[in-house]
Amino acid sequence: MLKENLTQVEEKIDAACRRAGRDRSEVTLIAVSKTKPVSTLKEAYDLGVRVFGENKVQELVEKYEALPEDIHWHLIGHLQRNKVKYIIDKAELIHSVDSLRLAEAIEKEAAKHQCTANILIEVNVAKEESKFGLMPEELDAFVDKVSEFPHICVKGLMTIAPFVADPEENRPIFARLRKLSVDIARKNIDNITMSILSMGMTNDYQIAIEEGATMVRVGTGIFGARDYAQQGNVR
Ligand SMILES: *Cc1c(COP(=O)(O)O)cnc(C)c1O
């Protein structure tokens, strides 16, 4: 099942890249493995998957410790300041930086570990009340402040688009995120590059790729439906 799913997702990514005139190498597939057991991740690993996304700190840490070292771990979910210390040396990229206080906590932990933290700024493009992320109009001021943090490197932007029946509805959201990133990149600010656009999930990653995504976060499409009976979280 996993193998067939992966093959299908790969084919769809290929097709979306072709439609958009993009090279497949421009898009990284992040296998979103939240709620799935280590054994399932190992199965994916054996099929060649090396980039996994988790949305909870504790789950990421547990899986990090149980699985091979050459895995690239991405933290994609909301991050609490007091938990930064657990993942600072484990997550290669934090996709979900949504406040200055969180950025400050990351700066502090990265300084302690003498490393540079790679982050994306989460933008609530659709302005959904239930979602985390900065409002688009808050971005400029935020970027200016974070650029002063020596242990943080901003790599780009991330958004979680609304859950819609027809993924085409999210095309303008993805186009908007791309436009925001182009506008920031143009300013040539220290410590700020806009090389990564993390957008698109199972429901809409093909559209996101057509609109410029460089990272797509696919969970259900690879691993099947999630069982939240024990976890009690959403999406
Ligand atoms: C769960 C999750 C995903 C993957 O969702 P699917 O619809 O299962 O592909 C992507 N991004 C974030 C931030 C998530 O929490």
Automatic annotation (TrEMBL):
Gene3D superfamilies hit by this protein: Alanine racemase
GO molecular function terms noted in the UniProt entry: pyridoxal phosphate binding
Protein origin, superkingdom: Bacteria
InterPro entries per UniProt: Ala_racemase_N (IPR001608), PLP-binding_barrel (IPR029066), PyrdxlP_homeostasis (IPR011078)
Residues recorded with modification N6-(pyridoxal phosphate)lysine: 34
CDD domains assigned to the protein according to its UniProt record, in alphabetical order: PLPDE_III_YBL036c_like (cd00635)
Cofactor field: pyridoxal 5'-phosphate
UniProt entry keywords in alphabetical sequence: Pyridoxal phosphate
Boundaries of every Alanine racemase N-terminal domain copy: 6-226
A Pfam family per the record: Ala_racemase_N
Functional description taken from the UniProt entry: Pyridoxal 5'-phosphate (PLP)-binding protein, which is involved in PLP homeostasis.
NCBIfam families according to UniProt: YggS family pyridoxal phosphate-dependent enzyme
Record family assignment: Belongs to the pyridoxal phosphate-binding protein YggS/PROSC family.
The name this protein goes by in its record: Pyridoxal phosphate homeostasis protein
Organism of this sequence: Merdimonas faecis
